[in-house]
Amino acid sequence: MTASLSGRRCRHRGSSPVSSSWPNLVPRARISPSIAKIALAAAFIPMAMSHDHHDEGSIPEGQTVSVEPIDATLWVHIFLQTFAFGIVFPLGMVLGIIKNRWHVPLQVFGTAIALLGYALGHLHGGRVFNEKNVHAKAATPLFFLMIAQIVLGAYLKLHLERGIHGRIRPFFRTLHSVNGKAFPLFSWVQMLFGGITALGFCQGDHLGQCAAHFIMGSAFIAYGIVLTILLLVGQLWMRRTGRSQEFYDSAVIAAWGCVNTFTEHHWGTEWVKNDWQHTTMGIIWWAAGLVGIWLSIGRDGSPKRNFIPGFIILLTGWAMSSHPQEMMISAMTHKMFGYTLMGVGFTRIIEICFVLNDQPGVSEDGREIKAFQYVPVFLLYAAGFLFMGANEEQMELVLWLGMDAVAYVLILYSVASIMFLWTMVLINVYDRAVNPVTKAVPNGRGRGEEVQLQDANEFELDGLMSDDEDEGRKFLKGEGADDDSIGSPSTVGRNNQHVV
Prior knowledge:
Elements: E1 10-12, H1 33-49, E2 51-53, H2 72-97, H3 103-120, H4 134-157, H5 164-199, H6 207-232, H7 235-241, H8 245-263, H9 273-295, H10 308-321, H11 328-355, H12 374-388, H13 392-401, H14 405-434, H15 449-460, H16 467-477, H17 483-486
Helix pairs in contact: 1-3, 1-4, 2-3, 2-5, 2-14, 4-5, 6-12, 6-14, 8-9, 9-10, 10-11, 11-12, 11-14, 12-14
């Protein structure tokens, strides 16, 4: 975030890679999906690396982008990368965790889309960007992380377990798993970098407040995602930890408060209004956070629920609703952000104290969820997007477009709704695979419709399934699996080993 956000785009000179076909003499040849991904990535490398640069002389003095509009090629690049990194790869990650057979085909498709978008990012015309933009700098490491993930997945699919491979395989499996689960986070950061680079935001004096808005806004969205996971599939896991949700929330609040206390004001310089507000906000965060940690542990060490995290969020929303702003539209957007955050804290306190009655959940099995429990979670998504969209340059752009604060807030709430929906879809895909829904049937055997459908599908595809997939199926049914089938939920898992 704090890196320079100025940038450039490049023009490709080379030609597209020439495709080849298999000889007719080998009609039954098969290609591993992992090998296909490596070949596809290698085919795009020359296209991305052999390019010329746009003329940066068209960029006005003191600006980071030219006045030309974004052309169609760059819009296609934006759409393809958002589709690949925002939809395909997260879904593929979940399918890898549950050992679904569609994981590898989906990741092959996502890799092809991502590499095509990467190439188009160097072929566009129209708007020109400065040389050192953070989006272009972050693209290369992200690209090699993706290639590394492919290589690790291909190695793990070979199942080499003898000799030195038996010693290094667990390390590669862990690395593959961690990188796969972290990839959505890398993708989120890169998409934010792309947005602020395309608009020429976060430069010079705007850098500090821009970084603060995007970091804090992303933190609220991440908190909402964590609460969504814990609400839908994590209640029993939380009980097994021996700690309440408020213990972890209060610990994070206290740690974040310590950071804000000593970083929001440049010590040795004059104090201004915003410095006082930000610094005192840090103080109340760590002070009240310590109280929340204390209240979350009973006399006998048992986990206890408390109101402190919700109260801190409510207080933060109240402070942000009255944060001084220079533009009226910015003041109204910040006020709506503050009200939304106050709603998060208020509804969270009601949920803990009155809906759950200080209990870990509504039911013992952790499957029952009250409608009211979704309210604070959804408002966290909305608060995050409102805060990210309330930075100074974005407010100036909205004002220049002639849009009022009401329309702008409704747009941000719409984006938050889509993000909330997509998060629940991904969690639902995981939950239905790991915890199949069973319903009583007239024959009294208790087999659910979904289980019957699953059995039917498995019967039809039984001849097409590999041994590894059969082990993954047994694992989901609780029949046991070997160490390799449960040790590496990642973005390249056990699936079809061959594609015709």
